[in-house]
Amino acid sequence: MDPLTKNLIVILLATIGTFFLLISSLGILRLPDVFTRMHAAGTASTLGISCLLLATGVYFLEDGQMFRMIALIILFFVTAPIATTTMARAAYRMSDSDQFLLAHDDLAALSDQDFQDERMSDGPQASVQ
Amino acid sequence: MQRLLVLNLFISLLWPILNGDHSLRALLIGFILGFVLLSIVQRKYGYYTLKLFRFTAYVLYAILQSNLRLAAIVLANALRSTSSLRPGIVAVPLALTNPLDITVLASIITLTPGTLSVDLDENVHGHIWPYNGSDAATSQLSGAVADAPSDSDDELVEAKADGGALQHPKLLLVHTVHIVEPKAFRAEIKHNFERPILELRWLLEELDAADM
Q1: How buried is B154 (Cβ within 10 angstroms: 0-12 exposed, 13-18 middle, 19+ buried)?
Q2: A32·B117 Cβ contact <8 A
Q3: Above 0.95 for ipTM, yes or no?
Q4: What is the pTM of this model?
Q5: Contacting residues of B for A108, CB less than 8 Å apart
Q6: What is the pLDDT of residues B20-32, one digit of tens each?
Q7: Which of A67, B18, B28, B112 has the highest Cβ tally under 10 A?
Q8: A89 at B interface, C-beta within 8 A
Q9: How is residue B163 annotated by DSSP?
């Protein structure tokens, strides 16, 4: 590939990646509660990191690094949401829901204390409150 | 499905060996050749793979789109002192029953910024219910979930007709950064992401049945 176009592509991808990382760190600083901050962190992980990895792959295209970067992105896409979901669940269960900014909450009805007690005493696999 | 995939990989390995061209490109050509051959023999295999690719492309597009939307929301909120967000947790009743399908759906929801799957409630109706036998818990719950299954009646009926396994839907609890109307949000998730996964699962079962 023509080195000029290659460099242009690298610069473009890296700029987009860094821009989204910047946005996500802004979001983590400025958004009101745990969940909304997690959304901001998600932006970084998906678009930001993918763009940076793709930029690396294009830069080292002759060494065949593109496949490794694509493999990394796929691994990231498979593992990251599971960790995020686990963290979100832990956050909800560890704190009172009045710590969150929630305009609509279906989970509150489900994790009602009485209902939860009933579950604990009768359930074969009691869920952690 | 597994048998066809192994055959496809076998053909894609055979092509470079017979050609004497041991490069990644030859492997790829072999794979495409094997895919075309197998699609002619088993029409559903090609259809399934194409559908899978189309869904993956759609998910990537949705991720890109919601990334831009979330970036706008974050910028708007970072620059102002007061927040105008209306975040909320919405229970989405699932028509999916396979654990892998549910994992995929939850992961896709988390991957698209702006929505985040928080919890999967499967005990509510399914496992604990028959054990305690009391109506208190169910009546308490029915108030919370009453409106949830109602907007998905057609899918429930379909799922029942399909296997009869789905008596009580599992609930996936999704946190969304800005909620306008819970019902519309539920319908959006079900139509955009759950429906294709369900269709892929049906197609896979048909394929396995035809393959036997």
Answers
A1: exposed
A2: no
A3: no
A4: 0.74
A5: 89
A6: 877 878 888 888 8
A7: B112
A8: yes
A9: T
